[in-house]
């Protein structure tokens, strides 16, 4: 069966959720960054990695999510088959891949974004990142006004958003309470039984 290699709390949570939503058999394997097991399936050392039955592997969260949506049309996770619905899926996938996800990088590893090593400089880098995350969340919040789901109905894009909303809740001093629509989306996804199954698995890993 397909195997997902994931690291608890990482963006690999998104395809982990989608695999559970499809209700198709799969295996989930927890890996550590830099481990031989992870490097064997992805020399870049990043998660997620999806390995299909025939040994073919796919990396990059966005690509895996698109693949799973197309592989399991019965799960109805694309947001729609119309041309513009497909474009909206691509647009929001690009937003999370290229805008929101990278905004968190300086929060996780501020030392990569400055040549100085004093604490004040690292804090300045992180505060700049927090401001950028807030701007991205404001865009998402405005889009969600009047919508329960990012594409108007539940899709892989909502799963993609979820780990980043969890990061924002933990890494912003104010959490996500200031963006009511974003917080509502987070809570809606978190209440899903399949999501709760995945979170219990990852947190117990």
From TrEMBL:
Q: Which residues form the GST C-terminal domain?
A: 82-205
GST N-terminal domain spans which residues? 1-76
Q: Which SUPFAM superfamilies match?
A: GST C-terminal domain-like (SSF47616), Thioredoxin-like (SSF52833)
Q: In its UniProt entry, what is this protein called?
A: Glutathione S-transferase
Organism, by scientific name, is Paracoccus versutus
């Amino acid at each position: 069966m397909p195997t997902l290699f994931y690291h608890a709390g990482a963006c690999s949570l998104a395809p982990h959720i989608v695999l559970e939503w499809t209700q198709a058999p799969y295996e989930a394997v927890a890996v550590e960054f830099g481990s031989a097991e992870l490097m064997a399936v992805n020399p870049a050392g990043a998660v997620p990695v999806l390995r299909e039955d025939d040994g073919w592997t796919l990396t990059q969260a966005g690509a895996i999510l698109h693949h799973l949506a197309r592989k399991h049309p019965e799960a109805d996770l694309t947001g729609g088959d119309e041309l513009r619905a497909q474009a909206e899926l691509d647009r929001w996938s690009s937003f999370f891949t290229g805008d929101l996800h990278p905004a968190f990088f300086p929060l996780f590893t501020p030392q990569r974004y400055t040549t100085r090593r004093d604490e004040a400089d690292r804090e300045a880098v992180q505060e700049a990142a927090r401001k950028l995350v807030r701007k991205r969340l404001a865009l998402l919040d405005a889009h969600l006004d009047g919508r329960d789901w990012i594409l108007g109905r539940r899709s892989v894009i909502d799963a993609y958003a979820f780990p980043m909303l969890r990061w924002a809740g933990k890494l912003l001093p104010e959490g996500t309470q200031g963006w009511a629509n974003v917080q509502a989306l987070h809570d809606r996804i978190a209440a899903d039984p399949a999501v709760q199954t995945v979170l219990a698995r990852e947190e117990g890993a």
